[in-house]
Design goal:
It is globular and about 70 Å long. Helix 7 packs antiparallel against helix 10 and helix 16 packs across helix 17. The N terminus is likely disordered. Strand 17 and strand 18 form a beta hairpin. The protein is α+β, with helices and mostly antiparallel strands and 530 residues long. The strands form 7 sheets. It has a 4-stranded mixed β-sheet, with helices on both faces. The protein has 4 domains: 144 residues, Nucleotidyltransferase, domain 5 (2-Layer Sandwich), CATH 3.30.420; 107 residues, Taq DNA Polymerase, Chain T, domain 4 (Up-down Bundle); 115 residues, Alpha-Beta Plaits (2-Layer Sandwich), CATH 3.30.70; 141 residues, Orthogonal Bundle (DNA polymerase, domain 1), CATH 1.10.150.20.
Length: 530
């Protein structure tokens, strides 16, 4: 359907091969461009690429949902009907037999695109749209179509183990409780913990006292049943969400096809759904074994993982220009060990493992605006000790304190925080009269420049890696993006060249005053490539 800014299409238009010329010449607007691109390209053809070249210039693509997300990252809906009502002050026209839903949505996208583009330009966010978000769309479309291999036999064996473990934990919980009950029932669990066992209560809910993770954590030093319940919940969630669920989600090609979402996380980071691969725990034994089920389609290939190391802390060093922080990263020393030496007033050689662990918690806590109460809870130390550690951190790195104070002040003035690349996050909580909400807004203002810049760098890296894979004729495929990590399926004879490409592209995509460190590992499955 022709619109004032070019051609607008939506999934379901019945795209025909004759329309391929549109991708070479027209400006295209859609409510969900990624879904459109996947639909219009036949499954047996390379998605929007022909050997080494893209068939569509991403600059000519315009996704209305992504545009609105850049303007309002906290919106509850990015559906065309919602955007049409809010940005054009009019409901969508009704569909009928002469004007089907697809035609209505196509016209809505065409009408919305110029208004959203005007607002992006006025807001200073158009560059993020054109340089990062839209070029990423075809990259994600190709990754989703490719999918990732899954060895269901690994999960089948794991399922037997976890079910045995769940039964064992349930029995231990019954023994500690002195009765049998439905452990999964918050109401029954609350009655057992607080009425029968007489443990101290925490937060109250509509059905009784809360039994959430924070409450169980506070009960753990008092009664062993709390720790058993936490372990039981973790194991049942892993089993139901991943171990038993993933095999049922395989596509007709026998591969797992997750969806990557650009308009969910307010930070700018990608999320994934159906299934959500971001939440597979990496530090637990069962979590690592779930990752071991992710394998190459061709068993002669290998999995390669390329992971940014401490990217948010490196961004903090660049943005704050604190001399000590910059030196710690440019010198190549162990950053957490260097921080421990400064915080505890000892030489680097005198840093003990416990000191390093505490310094590591402070390093990452500062990035997320963690309070002394939060740090104390995570390290299981008192408020006073936690506050003293934070104070010593800021004494060691005074430039960080100045930078964070300036960032919060700017956010109060402007109403938003901004990344190195111009991604804005509006923070209405800064205007709240509620102290807790306002404090949350200030922590968000501190964190967004680091976490949002990390998101921008990862997206730019994906675009560059994808471009080079196509341009240089690699058979390797980028199949997953999780947190600060890219995962590839790689023929054995391309491992060396792919490793060099990933490290070069990821470390060189942004110029910081400290190096971007990329660790690359190879293995027969995802878990072993860590």
């Amino acid at each position: 359907m022709a619109g004032p800014e070019g051609v607008a299409l939506v999934p379901g238009d019945g795209f025909d091969a004759t329309f391929s010329l549109l991708f070479e010449h027209a400006k295209l607007a859609a409510g969900d461009m990624k879904s459109l691109l996947q639909e219009v390209c036949p499954p047996d053809e390379a998605l929007l690429c022909n050997e080494s070249a893209l068939l569509v210039d991403p600059v000519r693509l315009f996704d209305c949902g992504i545009a609105a997300y850049l303007l309002e990252s906290n919106r509850s809906s990015y559906e065309l009907s919602s955007l049409h009502a809010d940005y054009l002050s009019a409901p969508l026209p009704a569909s009928d037999e002469n004007r089907p839903d697809a035609a209505v949505l196509a016209q809505a996208a065409a009408d919305l695109a110029p208004e959203l583009e005007r607002r992006l330009d006025s807001d200073g966010s158009l560059q993020v749209m054109q340089d990062i978000e839209m070029p990423l769309v075809p990259v994600l479309a190709r990754m989703e179509r490719a999918g990732v291999g899954l060895d269901t036999s690994v999960l089948a064996g794991l399922s037997e183990e976890t079910r045995t473990g769940i039964d064992t934990l349930r029995g231990e919980i019954y023994e500690l409780a002195g009765c049998e009950f439905i452990v999964d029932s918050p109401k029954q669990l609350s009655e057992v913990l607080f009425d029968k066992l007489g443990l101290p209560t925490g937060k109250r809910t509509k059905t009784g006292f809360s039994t959430d993770a924070s409450v169980l954590s506070s009960l753990a030093p008092i009664h062993p049943i709390a720790e058993k319940i936490v372990a039981y919940r973790e194991l049942t969630k892993l089993t139901s969400t991943y171990i038993d669920a993933l095999p049922r989600m395989l596509g007709e090609d026998g591969r797992l096809h997750t969806s990557f979402n650009q308009t969910v996380a307010a930070t700018g980071r990608l999320s994934s759904s159906n299934p959500n691969l971001q939440n597979i725990p990496v530090r637990t034994g069962f979590g690592r074994r779930i990752r071991a089920a992710f394998v190459p389609a061709d068993r002669n290939d290998v999995m390669v993982s390329a992971d940014y190391s401490q990217i948010e802390l490196r961004i903090l060093a660049h943005l704050s220009q604190d001399a000590g922080l910059v030196e710690a990263f440019t010198s190549g020393m162990d950053f957490h060990q260097a921080t421990a030496a400064r915080v505890f007033g000892v030489s680097v050689d005198e840093v003990e493992p416990g000191m390093r662990a505490k310094a590591k918690a402070v390093n990452f806590g500062i990035v997320y605006g963690q309070t002394a109460h939060g740090l104390g809870d995570s390290l299981k130390i008192g408020y006073g000790e936690a506050q003293a550690m934070i104070d010593r951190y800021y004494e060691a790195y005074p430039g960080v304190r100045r930078y964070l104070d300036d960032t919060v002040a700017a956010a109060h003035r402007d109403g938003y925080a901004i990344t190195m690349f111009g991604r804005k996050r509006r923070i209405p909580e800064l205007m709240s009269s509620n102290f807790n909400l306002r404090s949350f807004g200030e922590r968000t203002a501190m964190n967004h420049p680091m976490q949002g810049t990390a998101a921008d760098i990862m997206k730019l890296a994906m675009i560059e890696v994808d471009r080079r894979l196509l341009a240089e004729g690699f058979a390797s495929r980028m199949v997953l993006q999780v947190h600060d990590e890219l995962v590839f399926e790689v023929p054995v004879d391309e491992v060396e060249s792919l490793t060099a490409l990933a490290r070069e592209a990821m470390s060189g995509v942004a110029k910081l005053s400290v190096p971007l460190d990329v660790s690359v590992a190879t293995g027969p499955n995802w878990a072993s490539a860590k």
